[in-house]
């Protein structure tokens, strides 16, 4: 009896080890199994502009007249990676791999080549679904659950870096839930140190069971051993919508938000920097209809706490258009609850609601302003000069329009001067400004201490 108990104990102790398949020594067999499901994406598109020949427009024009078509711009060629999502011929890759492509070729490891059509794509998560007319049943990737991954676990990246052909690299999961500036706010990226290079985009990131846990998307330009992948749970959610509907429908609130730093928290008398500060409300948006105001701090959505600004669009995007979102909002130091019926993200750009508010000047903050009159006789207060080493220099820019100061609207120089008189020395003041950017006007809050 003692022997059987001891034997049972040893079996129970060893069973987890015997059942584990996370063994790097099995990698060659794993790659042989996965390679038929990984593809190279080749794209051809229109040239963005003509090729400069000499750097001098006069000589360029001369040579083009002399030699004609020999100096015409050539079609742009792109390379990327992808994988078989379904054995019927559905291929997943990154949207940026096939963006602006006129022709797309999908090439398998045996060099079998197929023309691909775009089923649909989602720019906000950088995912695209392609279709090929395969002449056989394809080997497809098995989807894993990215929610179960752990920091430190081994991963395998397969792709076509630098056009060299199928390449395998290994590494570990370095971090989860990464927000990557410039890659959008709808994805909690997986960070890995598996070597990724140009051309890896769209390829699979796998666990040692050969299951997809991510789609390789980007590398850190200023770092080594830092790559990012879209989690497989997100991939499945987005690609299934594209497969069924041809597009992705996600909820839309209609606000422009910004993060809350310590200065802004102090100005608003907030207990923490949690939440998303509403800097602008889109005209006729669900947010405006529901009564959300500029300056509100959104603390939660459907009882999920908003820790940082990036959490809000991510949570809203997970909801369907037409659904009701319950927002916990801090307004004038009081918490209120507002219900919003979400809309669908508009295809066309919608301008932010124009508000005219707040101001400052040289003696108090170290900048000059000017008053401009519009065709409808309305006035704008614009920053015309910022003095070096002033309180305003790291926060404001020439050309910024002052909309508010300490929640008081600034419509004219007279409004500005009235508020300036009220400001004490070393007082933290909250400015709302409007700034021009490449994507249009944006509204921003800035906390600045007076001199």
Describe this structure in words.
By secondary structure, this protein is an alpha+beta fold. The chain has 4 domains: 33-51 and 58-132, Trypsin-like serine proteases (Thrombin, subunit H, Beta Barrel); 143-245, Trypsin-like serine proteases (Thrombin, subunit H, Beta Barrel); 251-344, Roll (Pdz3 Domain), CATH 2.30.42.10; 362-449, PDZ domain (Pdz3 Domain, Roll), CATH 2.30.42.10. The protein has 10 helices and 27 strands. The chain has helices at 2-19, 27-34, 57-67, 95-98, 232-245, 262-267, 286-290, 311-317, 362-365, 413-422; strands at residues 38-45, 76-86, 90-93, 101-107, 113-122, 127-132, 142-143, 154-159, 167-178, 189-192, 204-206, 211-219, 227-231, 251-252, 255-258, 276-281, 297-301, 304-305, 324-331, 334-341, 343-344, 367-373, 379-386, 401-405, 408-409, 428-437, 440-449. Strands 1-2-3-6-5-4 form a 6-stranded antiparallel beta barrel.
Number of discrete helical segments: 10
Strand segment count: 27
Helix content: 10-25%
Tell me the CATH topology of the largest domain. Answer: Thrombin, subunit H
Q: Major sheet: size, sense and barrel closure?
A: 6 strands, antiparallel, barrel
Instruction: Give the averaged pLDDT, no decimals.
Output: 81
Could you tell me the radius of gyration in angstroms? 28 Å
Strand order of the largest sheet: 1-2-3-6-5-4
């Amino acid at each position: 009896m003692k022997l059987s108990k001891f034997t049972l104990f040893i079996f129970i102790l060893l069973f987890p080890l015997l059942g584990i398949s996370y063994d790097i020594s099995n990698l060659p067999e794993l790659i042989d199994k996965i390679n038929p499901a990984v593809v190279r994406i080749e794209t051809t598109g229109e040239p963005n502009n003509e090729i400069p020949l000499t750097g001098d427009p006069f000589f360029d024009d001369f040579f083009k007249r002399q030699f004609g078509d020999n100096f015409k711009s050539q079609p742009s060629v792109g390379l990327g990676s992808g994988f078989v999502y379904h054995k019927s011929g559905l291929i997943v890759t990154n949207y940026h791999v096939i963006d602006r492509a006129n022709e797309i070729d999908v090439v398998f490891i045996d060099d079998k080549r197929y023309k691909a059509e775009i089923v649909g794509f989602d720019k906000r998560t950088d995912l695209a679904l392609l279709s090929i007319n395969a002449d056989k049943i394809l080997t497809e990737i098995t989807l894993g659950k990215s929610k179960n991954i752990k920091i430190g676990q081994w991963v395998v990246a397969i792709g076509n870096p630098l056009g060299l052909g199928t390449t395998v690299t290994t590494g570990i999961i370095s971090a989860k839930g990464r927000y990557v500036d410039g890659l959008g706010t709808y994805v909690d990226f997986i960070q890995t140190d598996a070597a990724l290079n140009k051309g890896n985009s769209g390829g699979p990131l796998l666990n040692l069971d050969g299951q997809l846990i991510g789609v390789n998307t980007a590398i850190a330009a200023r770092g080594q051993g830092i790559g990012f992948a879209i989690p497989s749970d997100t991939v499945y959610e987005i690609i299934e919508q594209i497969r069924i509907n041809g597009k992705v429908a996600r909820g839309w609130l209609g606000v422009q938000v910004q993060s809350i730093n310590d200065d802004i928290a102090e100005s608003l008398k907030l207990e923490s920097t949690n939440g998303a500060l509403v800097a602008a409300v889109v005209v006729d948006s669900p947010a405006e209809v529901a009564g959300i105001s500029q300056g509100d701090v959104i603390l939660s959505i459907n009882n999920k706490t908003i820790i940082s600004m990036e959490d809000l669009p991510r949570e809203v995007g997970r909801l369907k258009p037409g659904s009701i979102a319950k927002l916990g909002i801090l307004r004038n130091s009081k918490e209120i609850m507002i219900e919003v019926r979400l809309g669908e993200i508009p295809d066309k750009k919608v301008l932010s609601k124009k508000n005219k508010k707040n101001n400052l000047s040289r003696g108090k903050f170290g900048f000059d302003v000017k008053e401009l009159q519009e065709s409808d006789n309305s006035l704008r207060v614009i920053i015309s000069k910022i003095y070096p080493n002033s309180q305003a220099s790291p926060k404001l820019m020439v050309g910024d329009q002052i909309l508010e100061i300490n929640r008081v609207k600034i419509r004219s120089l007279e409004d500005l001067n009235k508020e300036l008189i009220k400001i004490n020395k070393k007082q933290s003041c909250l400015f709302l400004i409007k700034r021009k950017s490449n994507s249009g006007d944006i509204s921003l809050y800035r906390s600045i201490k007076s001199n």
